[in-house]
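Action item from last week, closing it out:
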Amino acid sequence: MTALKNDRFLRALLKQPVDVTPVWMMRQAGRYLPEYRASRANAGDFMSLCMNPEFACEVTLQPLDRYPQLDAAILFSDILTIPDAMGQGLYFETGEGPRFKKVVSTLADIEALPIPDPHKDLGYVMDAVSTIRRELNGRVPLIGFSGSPWTLATYMVEGGSSKDFRKTKAMLYDNPQAMHLLLDKLAQSVTSYLNAQIMAGAQAVQIFDTWGGNLSAAAYQEFSLAYMRKIVSGLIREHEGRKVPVIMFTKGGGLWLESIADAGADALGLDWTCDLGEARQRVGNRVALQGNMDPTVLYAKPEAIRTEVGRILASYGKGSGHVFNLGHGITPEVNPEHAGAFLRAVHELSAQYHE
């Protein structure tokens, strides 16, 4: 494999010295870019884009071609590929988001679920990872990812996205045995899926626990964090002669940072509701931190964006161990020029903290 020309993202995740704070954006390959919309139109629909390795590679590289400041590429895929490979029948309705043809509602439904083989059932993802890695040619590291078991379970039980998770939470409290079986199967699936991504060329991986923050404190520990901990303990942590860092991101998880920091990951993702400096004090030297600008700041003028970047950098303070990111994914209506202003500001303003 080609040597990395820019490894500051990996170095920061391991709290090693860097020259400037590395930066990438969740959903950086997405609908805010006109070139992405053109590729999606050529592919026909979103799933065709995900399931074609050449298209997935094309849209993964688009933000890197536009923004030379990006310090990492992230695989273009969807968190719901695993439930789809379990036979749930993923599809997308315009304006409605993801939907499943089958829902999981009983213990029998869960017992019947297969654990996908990542190479046979999700081979298109591995083909995309290896294609992207080849085309990157050492430019920046490639991030692989998966949804967390709890987050995947919510979509499988609800049949799509939800505002209140009433079916999923009813199962959690009425039939914890069934919910634990579902989460255990998903944890096994995510572990093998991420390991296959690592073997195909992913140089860091992130677990997206998008809906963990909707749980009570006790339920979060039992039904979300416990299964992410299980995944992390089963991951390949070194490949191609260097460590493969793991990032754990629970949106809305600010109350539980200490527990998340003890779960075995190398870095902890923060949403914008956390104060970065306070988070650093709370977790100490246990993990690196990733985040955490409010994505809607990108609707503001470039001068205001730069001011907010400066405030967040000052909040973290001197030293490595910070990967700058948004507190959640970039939104479709953002002006690409504003995203560029954000990325430039991170590199320009952060050098002073790494002397």
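Closing note: The two ends are 31 Å apart (CA to CA).
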